[in-house]
Amino acid sequence: MKVVDNDLVMGASGKIGKMLVFRQKAGKTIIAKRGIRTAPLSVDQEAVTERFREAAIYAKKVSDDPLKKALYEAVAKPGQTAFNLALADFWKAPVVKKITLDDYNGQIGGTILVRAIDNFKVETVTVQILDGNSSILETGQAILQDNGLDWLYTATVENSSLQASTVRVTASDLPGNKTVQDQVVE
Question: Which domain of life is it from (predicted)?
Fold first, then answer.
């Protein structure tokens, strides 16, 4: 059922007893039956509840920070708020789509190209080069390229054991979610 121009519920928010919940979204009033849980939460449900609590705290901090809030508001669609976007961003870690080693030959100045994406913004991409014994040869920050998708890392240390090496990429987003992906040099 759809009710249009009903002065009784227009702009309403909150709850009526233990029966109904009113909320606003994109200028529309949403009315829903209030659910009441009687069973205890499972371990997985507790984990999701805690993660949601953390996401809400992050989103509130974004709303209180004019600079971060402006970042989220700049991409908000109609009906979305910076709080909504920050909440969603907290839930989703970046994805490392591709690590390209074509221009990395173990020499200083060789480059590694990383494609990393996020539902909002990849904040940093860190590259580590490990030798065959998993010892770190070098670590550094990749530079975001003009296309907004690819990150370029330039090697600063000579790698004499190239074939047994691993390139480890860590992509981070604004809420601090991290994704780590390794690629063996072949």
Answer: Bacteria
